[in-house]
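Hi everyone,

Forwarding the result from last night's run.
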Amino acid sequence: MAQQEHHQPLLLDNTNDSSDHDELEETAYDSDDKVHIVINDAEASDDDGSKTPPFSWKKLWLFTGPGFLMSIAFLDPGNLEGDLQAGAIAGNSLLWLLMWATAMGLLVQLLSARLGVATGRHLAELCREEYPRWAGYVLWVMAELALIGADIQEVIGSAIAIKILSNGALPLWAGVVITALDCFIFLLLENYGVRKLEAVFAVLIATMALSFAWMFGEAKPSGTELLLGVGFYTFCILIPKLSSRTIKQAVGVVGCIIMPHNVFLHSALVQSRDIDHSKKGRVQEALNYYSIESTIALVISFVINLFVTTVFAKGFYNTPLADSIGLVNAGQYLEEKYGGGVFPILYIWAIGLLAAGQSSTITGTYAGQFIMGGFLNLRLKKWMRALITRSCAIIPTIIVALVFDTSEDTLDVLNEWLNVLQSIQIPFALIPLLFLVSSERIMGSFKIGNILKMVAWLVAALVMVINGYLLLDFFSNEVNGVLFGSVVCAFTAGYAAFIVYLVFRGITLPRWCKSKSVTDALN
């Protein structure tokens, strides 16, 4: 009956109840798949577990992994295209904004990790439990659309790299098919354990870092301009260096940092470690280590993005090619500018792009499993969930590759539409995250404080306003005709109404939960 369909408590005291709950509910990781955290004798003697154990380099190593998988979304082909366009059009003047945008992304990802560690559940599962069924389905559809949009960009980026490395012998659609096979690589790696999978991602990130650092060395950018771009303008907040010509690139730098599917992903990845949620000290310890490793991971991602931006700023800023450069023709322009050499820069670029595309498509598969399993509570086998997730993205991507293979301009237009598709999904990840992580009923003593809550909402509002600007600018240029305009207006009205509902639901959630708890107790 309807009255019996009440929520299960998130933190269960009884271990038997917890095991029964796991049998009924979809979980991010099975207990056998989690990484065991070694506890020494001194920690074991702490019976109540209220004290946070002292820092340990060994434990930091054991907790290192989820943050680097999360950082892949900051290095996907979509971000690389934003970097190269920002460098070519705005030079080094937006590096300060790239740094602050990365910091804002770090804040959101730390909140996502906090939610997953403190509750033992990820964002998709909590959305299913905390929202009505119809709202949960809408959130699921929005998350899937954002994931598909990101996946198409990532797969196309890999396909472009494969086409370059094969000297054009393999067309774009063939590269898409090859990239689709990463699903099976992912399944193979997953069978060998979480740490093996994380090691592969570490290799891919290192490949990107070496490739783009090599390009940075070849380009020999001005160290003075680089320091000015990062340092001086960072502190000149009252007089930021933005012009009407670079405002679109500035908005793009901030808008592409926070990826909706990555917010869902990180809250699930942190559950790959075996943490005793009944002991406050162990939970706080996990939060501390995840904060450290996520910060290190995003600092590395910032440096890699900085390499890409400065290389294209050095080569193409204030040139006729600046406005026409994109992911498809970037390698050719680099070769014309810097020449071949012992290791042609064209192939160095392609190797870095391939590492970015392959790593981001695999994490996309990972995110798709968590999103689908969490929202729909599906207990499917891993290969089945991965196959469904990849099919949702690969089929439209092959169609895109066949249609746009011969046209760079139309591929760039498609990329703009995909950016819009992801931008409109951001509120549907950020709003539930902020309300859930602020709830004492859900987070207990780990809910965020008032100051952090205010900062988080300011960051979320800024990101949503920036993406709103992107949407307004895009639709004002692309929407033509009465029929299309009417459809867009109707969609916008429904979109705004659902955002208002999410905000209202979050504001009234504590009062609603209190009355519901009383009803559940009576039942």
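DSSP finds 23 helices and two strands in the chain.

Cheers,
N.
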